[in-house]
TrEMBL record:
Keywords: Cell membrane, Membrane, Protein transport, Translocation, Transmembrane, Transmembrane helix, Transport. It is a multi-pass membrane protein. This is Sec-independent protein translocase protein TatC. The Tat system comprises two distinct complexes: a TatABC complex, containing multiple copies of TatA, TatB and TatC subunits, and a separate TatA complex, containing only TatA subunits. Substrates initially bind to the TatABC complex, which probably triggers association of the separate TatA complex to form the active translocon. It comes from Microbacterium deminutum. It is found in: Cell membrane; Membrane. HAMAP family: TatC. The chain crosses the membrane at residues 15-36, 71-93, 105-130, 150-176, 188-204, 210-230. InterPro entries: TatC. The keyword Transport applies. It comes from the Bacteria. The gene is tatC_2. The lineage of its organism: Bacteria, Bacillati, Actinomycetota, Actinomycetes, Micrococcales. Signal peptide: none annotated.
Length: 250
């Protein structure tokens, strides 16, 4: 393809991605009310449990509308992710060889479900985080939480846990391209376990340690699964190399 053909193809893919984003954002607008109620639930529970004033606060007249728009766009990005990810994938496919294509497709099919599962786990731990962080305020004080900043906090926490669930897939991908061996992944299990426990402890700062283990256990399982897949791949590569050396020697 010429440069002009590449640019036209890129423009066509971008148009479809934008259309998908717009449709997803319209759907996100109608869902934004439910998201706001879900975000407000930990604050309402805080007011009931600690018997003090706790509520979301909008610092200007357009604050509620602006937040609804941001939530709609965020939902739109998530809902339209199959569309724009496919458009990116379809644009890059002609430049990939068969092996790279197989690895990329495997990464996509495994990373997306794991990311969504991680985001769901993050949504479950948000109430615990809110409960702990607001508990440092004196019991006689009020918690007037700025809605926009609260949304940013929840979004970053959920995304961080979602990305943490995808990291084992990166380990497998690095192993498949020859950057990281399965033996190295297995030998690093102590560091990985400590990192997971610390991350889970920070993400679930609650007196209930069960919440921490509920987050840490699937991350440990994913790490062990990544190590096992990498080890199996290394053995397969070693057998293929040994068979090739035998054939050349004969």
């Amino acid at each position: 393809m010429t440069l002009g053909q590449h640019l036209r193809e890129f423009r066509r893919r971008m148009i479809w991605a934008v259309v998908g984003l717009l449709i997803g954002s319209v759907a996100g607008w109608f869902l934004s009310g439910f998201i706001l109620e879900a975000m407000r639930a930990p604050i309402a529970a805080l007011a009931e449990q600690q018997h003090r004033l706790a509520e979301l606060n909008y610092d200007n007249i357009t604050g509620a509308f602006d937040l609804r728009i941001r939530i709609a766009l965020t939902i739109g990005i998530v809902l339209s992710s199959p569309v724009w990810l496919y458009q990116i994938w379809a644009f890059l496919v002609p430049a990939l060889n068969r092996k790279e294509l197989r690895y990329g497709l495997g990464f996509f099919l495994s990373a997306v479900p794991l990311f969504l599962a991680g985001c769901a786990a993050g949504a479950l731990v948000v109430p615990h985080v809110v409960e702990l962080l607001t508990s440092f305020a004196p019991s006689e004080s009020s918690s007037l939480i700025e809605a926009s900043q609260y949304f940013d906090f929840v979004l970053k926490l959920v995304l961080a846990i979602g990305i943490a669930f995808v990291l084992p897939v990166f380990l497998v991908l690095l192993n498949f391209v020859g950057v990281l061996s399965g033996r190295t992944i297995i030998r690093s299990w102590r560091i990985a376990l400590l990192t997971i426990v610390v991350f889970a402890g920070i993400a679930t700062p609650s007196a209930d340690v069960i919440s921490m283990f509920l987050l840490a256990i699937p991350m440990v399982v994913l790490y062990l699964a990544a190590a096992g897949i990498a080890r199996i791949h290394d053995r397969r590569v070693a057998r293929t190399a040994a068979a090739l050396d035998t054939a050349l020697g004969a």
